[in-house]
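U., I forgot to send this yesterday:
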Amino acid sequence: MKAKVAGIVFILGSLYYLIAEVISAAFFNASLINTYIFHTISELGIPSVNSPLFLLMNSAFIFIGLTLLFGNFYKFKDYITKNKSVFYIFTIITSLGVIIVGLIHGGNPLTLGYHALGAVMAILGGNILLVLISRSMCDFTLYQKITLVLGVIGLIAFWTMFFNIESIYMPVFERLSVYPLVIWSFLTGCYLFVD
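Result:
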């Protein structure tokens, strides 16, 4: 029963995030395609005329952070057979990072550093967490292989973004580094629900 509850939470958290981003992007002061290519996810959460649904986007950050925290500690921890302490540490780092991004937006020069720190905790921490999870379960089955591939894609995208921060396509790299964790949350929800 605990697995099904955690599974539902993971599925709802990931779907809420994706749907909230699409809706926020649709109301952003640019076409939907241009928003996804030329505007960062963080921009959707900045209170301004460009992003009238900033509260929705920020709620999605907070919700996906709480989803990860709850799901991992409530049930998914039982599937981790090695590196449990590191698993807990990176779960907390990633979750707090995403929540910080939702609570402290990037548009204020006084708090921009905290927002950036939260983003690094969430993105880098999250993708390291995925690689760690893939190597910390009993068997290296298809689920673990997909988790590893997602983590590696996210890490490559993060470093590409980091070294191309001034590129007009940086938002694309940002999304490629963020979505692996969201996709993993959905897949993990399905994995737990059918267990």
